[in-house]
Here is the input.
Amino acid sequence: MRVLFVYPNNMGYTRIPPGISILVSILKKNGHEVKVFDTSFYKLFSENDDDIRTKTHQVRFADLNQYGVTYQAASVQDVLADCTRVIKGFNPDLIAFSVMTEDCADFSQFLAAGIRKAYPKMPFIFGGIAVTMSPEEYIAHPFVDVINIGEGEDSLLEFITKSEKEEDISGIKNMWIKRDGQIIKNEVRPLKDLNEIPIPDFDEFSEKHFYRPIDGVVYRMAMVEFTRGCPRRCTYCNNHVLQNLYQGKGAYIRRKSIERVMQEMEFLKKKHNLTMIFFVDDDFTLLPLEEMREFTDQYKERIGLPFVIQVAAPTISREKVVLLRDAGCVTFCMSIESGNDFIKNKVFDRYISNDQLVKAFATIKAEGVRVSSTNIIGNPFETRKMVFDTIEMNKKTQPDGLSNCFLVPYKGTRIREMALKEKFIRSDMKLGHGTRGEPILDMPQISKNELKALQKMFPFYVRLPRVFFPVIRFCEKDNIFSGWVLKILSLWLASIEESIRNKRLKRYNMFMKHSPSSLNG
Here is the structure.
C-alpha cells in the first residue's frame, strides 16, 4: 500500500517528529511505500517560533541560512496546492494526518477538506496527540474516516494490513471508525515494549530539520527517545489524559534497554552525520543512578557526541550531573514554569518547591554545565505580581538560558476546564499562534497587552539589576522613546549574556580537561 503522511506544522517548529518517523520505519519494513508531506518550511505567519524566541531574547541568534535552512512564504492555499500535486504524483491509497498540537488543528482540517474535495474517495486517518486529547471533535468531521487514539505503532500497521486484504477493520484497538452512520470506539491495546519499536526513519523529511542551534552554535541534531512517559500530572499537560487512557494497560513509564538505545544512536549518528543528540524524554534523570552510570559509560565509548536532556528538579543529584557532564551533556533543560506557590500548586497541580528548584539549578551550575529554564505566564488567576514571582525565581537561579511561553489551554487538559469555568476563554476559541505567539486567556486582573509586554521584557527583568526596573517597565510601552532605550538595554543584556556564557564555558572546560570523555562535538 502507498501511504502519504501529512505533517501539518503551520508554526514552523523544526526537528523531525519521532512519532511519524517511527511509523514510517514500521511501514517500510513491512513492504509499504511511504512519503511525507511536511509543511514545516512554509512560512505561513510573519514570524515563526524561532523568530519570536530570537526577538524576545530567549535564544542567541544563529544564522541558519548558511546551512540552507530557508522558509518559503506561502498562504494556506499555496500549501494545499502543493499537497495536491504531491498526491497526484504519488497516488497514495491512504493519507495519514499526524496532528501534534491543537495549534495545527484548523490547518490540518483545511488541508483535509481541500484534499477530499479534489479526491472524494481518498481514505483519511487522523492521529497524533491532539487527536488523542480531543477525539470526539476529530471523528465528527465529515472528511475524517478513522482516528487513532494513543500510540499507533501496532494499530496503523494492522489497519493497513487488513485494509489491503479487505478484512474487517471495525475491531482494531486504538481506533475509532465510522461505519453505517455509527462510530465504533475501540479500547486501547496494552502498552508496547519500546525495545520492539524499530529505529526511526528520517529519510522522508528535509535535511533542514537537522540543523538546530544550541547557545548560538549550530549542530546537526536528531531527537532520540530513550524513555517514554512522565510521572507528573500537571494540569496544562497531556500526561494525565494518557495515564488515565492506559490505566491497567502496562507500565506507563517505559524505557529502551541501554544496548537498544545505543544501537539506535550509532545508526543515526553514522547515517545522518549527527553532531548533537537531543533526548526527548520528559525527565531524563528519572534513570536510577546505577543505570545512569552504565548509560554514560556506554555513551562515552560508543557515541561521544554532545547531548541535551530535559529534567525535573526532584530527580537531580550531583552524582547524576557529574556522570552526564563527563559523558558530554551540554545542556539541562529544566522547568520553573512559575515561581508563585498558588500557580504551581493550585493551578498547575505541580508540587515542586522553590527550594527544590534553587538547589537543582545550583547543583547543575556548580558542575559547569549549561542549564536553561522554561517559564509560563498568562495563567488562570495570575497577576502581575505573580509573574514577578517567576521573574524573581529566575533571578535567584540565574539559568544560562531563558524560555518564556504563554499558557495554552489545550483541549483535553484540566487547565482548559478551569479556564472555561472561569470564562477566561470561550469554548469555540481557536488556537493557532503557538505557545509564544499571543496570550490566550482574557482575564480582568491583567491584560493581554501587559502579558505581551512582560514577555518582551522578561529577560531584562531577570538579568539586569533591580534598580533598573523602572526603566525596564518604561520599555514595556511601545513608542519611539521606549524603543531607543530598549536598544541600549538590549546591548547591555547581550554583554551580560556573553559574560555568563564565557564564565560557564571556562568552568565547563576546566572540568572536561580532567574527564575521560571522548566528546567529538
Q: What stands out?
A: Residues 516-521 have pLDDT under 50 and may be disordered.
